[in-house]
C-alpha cells in the first residue's frame, strides 16, 4: 500500500503526478489547528509531510504518530522543532544548494538598490519630479570598492562574497563561529569578530540561520557600532534583528539605509514605520522567489521526501542521525 502524505503547499500538476505514483496525497491549506481538527484522521495516518511556512512542533507531532519524513521547500528550518523530530526518529529534509545563487543575487540587489537609491529615485521620476538635470539630492553612494561585511559565511554567504569580490572589487569581512578557509583563499575574506565587522563594513549583510543563539543578535548596541554611513541588509530571518532598535537607528540617522527582505512579523504590518522611510527598501521575503528557483526547490523537496520515505537518503537531511537507527 502507498504511504499517505500531507501536502500543505500548492505544487504544479507535473509534480503532483510524480508524487501520486508513490504516495497518496492529502492536500491541506495549512497546518493551523482548524485544519488539523478537520483532517485529524488524515494527519494521524500520514507518513510524510511536505510544504513550507507552517510550524512543526511537538504539539503537531502528537497528532501525527505515523510520521516518518518531513520535507520543507526551503533551506531555513527554524519553523521545525528539530529535537522533537529527531527524538521521534523522523527525518527532516530541506533544500540547500538549489537556491543559493538566487538568494545571493537578492542580497546584491538590496545592496545596489539601497546604495544607489533605485526605488526612491525611480518613484520620483514617475511622479514627474525629473524636470531638470539632477543635483546631489538625487545622488547615491558607490558600491564598488566599498567593504562588505557578511554575518554567516555559509553557502549563500560564499555566493555573495564571490559577487562582491569578483564583480564589484569589494574587500570582504565575515563573521561566523568557525573559520571558512575557502572564503579566505578564493575571495580574500577576512574573518573578524562581530564588533569589528560592524564598525568597519560599509554594508553589513545578514545571512545566517535563526536559532536561539542568533535571535536578536543585532540590537541597539550592534547597530550603534556601525558607521553612520553604513547600510544594513537582512535576507536571513526577521527575528535575528531587534526591529524596534533598527527603526530607532534609522530614525535617528545612526545608519544610512536598510535593505530588508525579512521581518519580525510577516507579512509586515502596512503601518510599520519602516515602510514610511525613503531609505528603506522592503521586499516581501523574495530571497529565492524566481520562477526557476522556486520550481527547482519544489522538485528538490519532492525528491527529498520520496528518498526519505524509501530509506535511500544521500543528501539534504538536517538530522542524518535518525537514518542509522
Ligand atoms: P548555511 O550554509 O548553513 O550557512 C549558515 C552560516 O551561518 C554558516 O556559515 C555558519 O557558520 C553561520 N552561523 C550559524 N550560526 C551562527 C552564529 N551563531 N554566529 C555566527 N555565524 C553563524 O546556510 P545558507 O544556505 O547560507 O542559508 C543561511 C540562511 O539564510 C538560512 O538559514 C535562511 O534562514 C536564510 N535564507 C533566507 C532566504 C530568503 O528568502 N530571504 C532564502 C534562503 C535562505 P559557522 O558554523 O562557522 O558559524
> Overall mean pLDDT score?
97
- Note the total helix count: 13
Distance from N terminus to C terminus (CA atoms, Å) equals 23 Å
Shape: elongated
Secondary structure class reads: alpha/beta
N-to-C series of helices and strands: EHEHHEHEHEHHEHEHEHEHEHEEH
Bound molecules: NADP nicotinamide-adenine-dinucleotide phosphate
Neighbour order of strands in the largest sheet: 8-7-6-9-10-11-12
Radius of gyration from CA coordinates: 22 Å
Uncertain runs are: none
Fraction of residues in helices? Answer: 25-40%
Classify the beta-strand content into a percent band.
5-15%
Q: In total, how many beta strands?
A: 12
Main β sheet profile = 7 strands, parallel
Describe the structure.
This protein has 325 residues and is of the alpha/beta class. Helices cover 37% and strands 14% of the residues. The chain contains 13 helices and twelve strands. It has helices at residues 13-20, 33-38, 40-45, 58-62, 82-87, 100-115, 118-126, 155-168, 181-187, 194-200, 220-225, 243-251, 291-310; strands spanning 4-7, 24-27, 48-51, 69-72, 91-93, 148-151, 172-175, 190-191, 203-206, 231-234, 257-260, 280-282. It has a seven-stranded parallel sheet, with helices on both faces. Helix 6 (100-115) packs across helix 8. It is elongated, with a radius of gyration of 22 Å. The mean pLDDT is 97. NADP nicotinamide-adenine-dinucleotide phosphate binds next to helix 8.
Amino acid at each position: 500500500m502507498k504511504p499517505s502524505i500531507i501536502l500543505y503547499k500548492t505544487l504544479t500538476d507535473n509534480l503532483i503526478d510524480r508524487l501520486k505514483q508513490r504516495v497518496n496525497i492529502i492536500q491541506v491549506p495549512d497546518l493551523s489547528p482548524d485544519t488539523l481538527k478537520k483532517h485529524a484522521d488524515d494527519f494521524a495516518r500520514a507518513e510524510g509531510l511536505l510544504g513550507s511556512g507552517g510550524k512543526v512542533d511537538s504539539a503537531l507531532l502528537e497528532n501525527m504518530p505515523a510520521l516518518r519524513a518531513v520535507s520543507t521547500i526551503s533551506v531555513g528550518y527554524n519553523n521545525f522543532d528539530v529535537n522533537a523530530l529527531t527524538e521521534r526518529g523522523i527525518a527532516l529534509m530541506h533544500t540547500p544548494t538549489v537556491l543559493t545563487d538566487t538568494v545571493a543575487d537578492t542580497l546584491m540587489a538590496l545592496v545596489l538598490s539601497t546604495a544607489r537609491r533605485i526605488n526612491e529615485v525611480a518613484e520620483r521620476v514617475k511622479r514627474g519630479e525629473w524636470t531638470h538635470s539632477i543635483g546631489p539630492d538625487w545622488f547615491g553612494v558607490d558600491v564598488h570598492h566599498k567593504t562588505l561585511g557578511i554575518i554567516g559565511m555559509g553557502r549563500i554567504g560564499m555566493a555573495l562574497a564571490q559577487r562582491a569580490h569578483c564583480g564589484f572589487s569589494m574587500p570582504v569581512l565575515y563573521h561566523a563561529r568557525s573559520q571558512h578557509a575557502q572564503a579566505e583563499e578564493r575571495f580574500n575574506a577576512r574573518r573578524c569578530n562581530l564588533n569589528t565587522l560592524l564598525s568597519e563594513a560599509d554594508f553589513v549583510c545578514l545571512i545566517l540561520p535563526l536559532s536561539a543563539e542568533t535571535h536578536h543578535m543585532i540590537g541597539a548596541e550592534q547597530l550603534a557600532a556601525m558607521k553612520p554611513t553604513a547600510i544594513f541588509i537582512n535576507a536571513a530571518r526577521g527575528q535575528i534583528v531587534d526591529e524596534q532598535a533598527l527603526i530607532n537607528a534609522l530614525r535617528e540617522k545612526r545608519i544610512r539605509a536598510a535593505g530588508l527582505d525579512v521581518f519580525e512579523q510577516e507579512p509586515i504590518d502596512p503601518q510599520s514605520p519602516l515602510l514610511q522611510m525613503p531609505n528603506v527598501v522592503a521586499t516581501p521575503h523574495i530571497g529565492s522567489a524566481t520562477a526557476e528557483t522556486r520550481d527547482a526547490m519544489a522538485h528538490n523537496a519532492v525528491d527529498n521526501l520520496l528518498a526519505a520515505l524509501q530509506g535511500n537518503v544521500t543528501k539534504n537531511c538536517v538530522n542524518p542521525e535518525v537514518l542509522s537507527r
